[in-house]
């Protein structure tokens, strides 16, 4: 059972002390009453503790000691109406820089390292960040019709990048995508931006089929990195070619494990891409067959195909299987956690103005706080601590912040 030590408490609370200087304050400067840093840090701390509504955030602020409030930059607890007014008036600009500084701090302190895969793996995937009925609250939200009666609804969609080679799996960036743009065209500028900010953090870039294209491959090659693109039937020529070549290839690596109540076997086949293939830099096709067998004997099989520019001898077959599994980690870890733990796609505390966009960034910052904290908790039977248990421990840390600070000051 994970234990909340004094050192862990002080470290996780420090990670909530973010500098929101890049974010513009929309309020009038006279008689604000609350600092922008204080209110936004409160959002992050409360989300990290499992508080999903503005009323719950207000109650969380009421629970804090004076020292804890001051650590956030607050002199008194704000009302939920104060939080709602701020969230609806803020713009999402500047939050990316806050996220980058958060990641940079964790990298410099070695709280985030590439412990799962040497060289580093950045995985890109699309993610819903909120939805609702009626007219869209802003231009970034995509409007659609959700039933035969023509009922209007809206949603927010983002392309996100996660460092899946770290056991913490922190988010590195996100780009909110409106209805005029798609994931594939967003990938290139986003990758260039992240690689410019963290040039040595990752060598391998993995994506689903929706992001795979010759243009995006060229961008990866420009950066001297390695792409691993999933490909499907939307590649009218390349996908059938890969399937045909992989069909009779030998299995070069296999793993067998028990997961989610099933026996899961993964088999790898790989072949060289033909020399006359024009896809930029392509060297290999990988075929991964996953077979799941339930306790009652039911068997399901799924085949996935990947194209990559990795040199043939750079990765052993065993490491290839591990890399492919890390790619799936963005869905099974970061995206699942955002929806099931942070209820991102179903519950938004503020839908007015840019509130849903701003809160997607604040939740992402909170996710990183919990993810890094959880990664360093003791494991039980080889498994990391539950997300809910991790958030409970962070809440306990905030309640006892006065004692933690006093002990830290005495030792200093």
Describe the structure.
By secondary structure, the chain is of the alpha+beta class. It folds into two domains: about 5-90 and about 355-410, no CATH class; about 95-340, Transposase Inhibitor Protein From Tn5, Chain A, domain 1. About 40% of the residues lie in helices and about 20% in strands. It has 13 helices and ten strands. Helix 8 links the parallel strand 5 and strand 6. The longest helix has 24 residues, at about 315-340.
Question: What is the compact description of this entry?
Answer:
By secondary structure, the protein is an alpha+beta fold. 41% of the residues lie in helices and 21% in strands.
> For the record, what is the CATH homologous superfamily label of the largest domain?
Transposase Inhibitor Protein From Tn5, Chain A, domain 1
Mean pLDDT: 88
Low-confidence stretches: 408-412
The CATH architecture category of the largest domain equals Alpha-Beta Complex
Category by helix and strand content: alpha+beta
Number of separate structural domains: 2
Query: Which shape, going by the Cα principal axes?
Result: globular
Return Rg in Å.
23 Å
Q: In CATH's first tier, which class of the largest domain applies? A: Alpha Beta
């Amino acid at each position: 059972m994970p234990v909340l030590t004094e050192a862990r408490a002080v470290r996780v609370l420090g990670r909530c002390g973010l500098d929101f200087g890049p974010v513009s304050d929309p309020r009038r400067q006279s008689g604000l009453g609350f600092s922008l840093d204080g209110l936004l840090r409160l959002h992050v701390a409360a989300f990290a503790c499992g508080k999903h509504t503005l009323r719950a955030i207000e109650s969380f602020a009421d629970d804090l000691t004076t020292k804890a409030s001051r650590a956030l930059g607050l002199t008194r607890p704000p009302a939920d109406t104060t939080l709602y007014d701020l969230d609806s008036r803020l713009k999402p600009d500047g939050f990316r820089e806050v996220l980058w500084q958060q990641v940079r701090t964790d990298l410099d302190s070695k709280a985030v390292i590439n412990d799962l895969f040497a060289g580093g793996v950045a995985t890109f995937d699309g993610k819903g960040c909120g939805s609702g009925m009626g007219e869209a609250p802003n231009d970034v939200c995509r409007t659609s019709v959700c039933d035969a009666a023509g009922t209007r609804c809206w949603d927010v969609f983002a392309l996100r990048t996660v460092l899946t080679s770290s056991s913490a799996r922190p988010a590195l960036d996100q780009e909110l995508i409106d209805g005029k743009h798609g994931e594939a065209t967003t990938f290139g500028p986003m990758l260039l931006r992240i690689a410019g900010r963290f040039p040595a953090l990752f060598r391998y870039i993995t994506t689903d089929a929706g992001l795979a294209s010759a243009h995006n491959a060229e961008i990866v090659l420009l950066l001297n990195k390695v792409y691993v693109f999933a490909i499907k039937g939307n590649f009218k020529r390349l996908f059938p070619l890969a399937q045909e070549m992989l069909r009779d290839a030998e299995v070069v690596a296999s793993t067998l494990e028990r997961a989610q109540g099933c026996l899961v076997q993964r088999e790898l086949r790989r072949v060289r891409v033909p020399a006359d293939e024009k896809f930029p830099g392509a060297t290999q096709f990988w075929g991964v067959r996953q077979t799941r067998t339930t306790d009652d004997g039911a068997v399901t099989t799924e085949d996935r195909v990947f194209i990559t520019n990795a040199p043939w001898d750079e990765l052993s077959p065993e490491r290839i299987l591990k890399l492919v599994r890390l790619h799936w980690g963005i869905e099974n870890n970061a995206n699942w956690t955002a929806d099931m733990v942070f209820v991102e796609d179903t519950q938004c505390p503020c839908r007015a103005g840019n509130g849903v966009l701003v809160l997607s960034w604040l939740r992402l910052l909170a996710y990183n706080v919990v993810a890094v904290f959880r990664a360093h908790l003791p494991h039980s039977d080889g498994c990391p601590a539950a997300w809910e248990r991790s958030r409970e421990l962070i809440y306990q840390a905030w309640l006892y912040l006065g004692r933690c600070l006093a002990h830290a000051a005495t030792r200093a």
